[in-house]
Amino acid sequence: MAWSTRELAELAGTTLRAVRHYHQVGLLAEPERRSNGYKQYGVTHLVRLLRIKRLVDLGLTLPQIADLGELDDHPAEALRTLDADLAATIDRLQRARADLCETLDRAAPTDLPPELAPVAGVDLSEADRSFVAVLGRVIGPQRRQAWADMLQDLPDDPVAAEFDDLPAEADEATRHAVTERMVPYVRALRAQHPDLGEPLSDAPRDTHFAARTVGEALRDLYNPAQLDVLRRTEALLRADRATPSG
């Protein structure tokens, strides 16, 4: 029995282009030719092509099939490796689908991790919202949840709007006044949400990387006067903690 290239492809359920490509990469031996120059394929070519197609359909790459050599009738080890890879891929896709469903259900923005998704409904400035998105990438899940709880329970204090509206050229008196009002506001937030703790303490990467990322985000998002107020506020809060009570 001898088949043409087209007939061989049809029998194997593949395409002429695939058969020619398998010849080019050395997976399928070239057949003999008839006197008229046309190729004539036999049973060995069909069986080989069926094996190649089956392995490709299972997910092996052509280089992987080539590495199998004569073992491709039942490459148990390669198939077990492929099965493990597929299992890992399925697990990743299932987690991605669960995350997608949660994002759709909450109408959550795609720049926030799931724990911080509810923050999308909170009235934050554009700078604050962007800072939370960056912070969510460098802190661990426990701190992300603590931040989400805090941001959803923000008190209605005019100092927050004062800080948002503080111009870059604000004078010393204005900066000092805003700082004086920021200190009790931030102190109350931290007392109400003690789980905030040190925000970078459970950073998934090293704390130096996390601190550098947060610092760069602050410098990009807030103007010099706002950054000055933040530094002063933190310094006063540290001084409070360092002062013995009683």
TrEMBL record:
**The HTH merR-type domain, residue ranges:** 2-71
Tell me which UniProt keywords the record has, alphabetically: DNA-binding
* Highest taxon of source: Bacteria
Listed InterPro entries: DNA-bd_dom_put_sf, MerR-type_HTH_dom, MerR_fam
Q: Which SMART domains match?
A: HTH_MERR (SM00422)
Q: Which GO terms describe its molecular function?
A: DNA binding; DNA-binding transcription factor activity
The record's section on Pfam families has: MerR_1
- Name of the protein described by the UniProt record: MerR family transcriptional regulator
Question: What organism does this protein naturally occur in?
Answer: Pseudonocardia petroleophila
